Amino acid sequence: MATITIRNLDDFIKTRLRVRAANHDRSMEEEARIILRDALQDADEKRGLGSLIHKRFMSAGGVKLAPPVRNQPARKPDSLE
User: Fold this and answer.
1) pLDDT at 80 (0 to 100)
2) Which residue among 10, 33, 67, 71 sits deepest, i.e. has the most Cβ atoms within 10 Å of its Cβ?
């Protein structure tokens, strides 16, 4: 594992990191690791609307839907003439 040091971090950012870590019952170091991991993993993922919707619902436990019933044949498109 690598180690990094972050210098010249604004007091405001440090305070927000400390509060966020406390809200998640983690150390500031662990919270920073998770933030960096999430930010860099998201950079590699597709950012399309469908991917964002999927991610939102999966974080809430997901939703299982039955496929729609398709009992009618497809219609021909109306003529453009």
Assistant:
1) 67
2) 33
